[in-house]
Structure prediction request, 352 residues.
Amino acid sequence: MAEPAPSAADLALIDPDGHFRLRLLEDRRMLAGGDRSEAGLAAVIHRLAGAAGTFGYGEVGAIALGLDDRLAEGGRIGADDLARLVAALDRAIARSA
Amino acid sequence: MALGEVPGSVGELADDAYAAAEMQTRILVVEDDKDIALLLARELRGLGHTVDAVSLAEEASLAARSSDYAMLIVDLGLPDGDGLDLVRELRRRSVEAPILMLTARRRVQDRVIGLSSGADDYLVKPFAVPEMRARVTALLRRPSRRRGQRIAFANLLIDGEALEALVNGESLCLPRKQFQLLELLARRRNHMTPKHMIEETLYGFDDEVSANSIEAQVSKLRRALNTAGAGVRIETRRGIGYRLVGVDPAARWNG
Prediction:
């Protein structure tokens, strides 16, 4: 079950300068872009898997964790997986605006 | 990436607080994710600790050589190497501070490998900030491998539990700062101890440290060791620091 996006009060404590939210925007751009490399994609997913949950973005973190595990086990991720992650990022960004 | 400092120690202390303050709360964070590193640094400072943060294993290795950390938080996946290798190297070098491993690897097997490599605890990313704070506090509260340790060197015995230094079984009756200095030098015996590391151990952030404070403490300690007939001497390397070495009692240094 995905956790709700952080409240403004949570973010003021965990991400007072908004750095992590900016990173979500950059990651979303990268994931949705067409010129991404596999290594770059894996790096963004790994970073999101490790950090998104800590910063209160539970849904993004959970999806990224699942994809990161799959990559670690030698699996591949498809366009629908990426679309799911991008959609979660959109929701997280919209809620934390 | 140095993230600055916050005071983590105090100056003059009551006896019962002495042992706690003896172990400075300077923490090294080794994490290449900038956001996580900044979050850790901010939270740890909020707990009153001094925090240094680096993003590479090589930087961490160098930092651990030049500062005496009370604790290290090490991410497993570093850009220039595996955090496990770093932990193994630090333990080989007798770095005894507790190490909290931080990782996105969630399998039990990974946690077992981390702990058996020399880490004291394991925190899986993503982590809840209150859990991180609780684990750090618990690790720092644990009796350290260092605290209460006895160090024997030549005819010198330093009893960390009794806060006493003895030469041939006779107490040197050292004042607090000289005892702390001797203990630090003895722990790093035969290795240069940088002057700033001595400053961090002997003085708090708010203490005024004059230009020759360390030299004065070293001079007094040398006199005490010499008078007691200790089989050790303190070498000076100008601009670098000090080193405690053993000497042949017959050729004991008289400086």
In short: Chain A touches chain B at residues 14-16, 19-20, 23, 46-47, 49-55, 61, 65, 68-69 (CB under 8 Å).
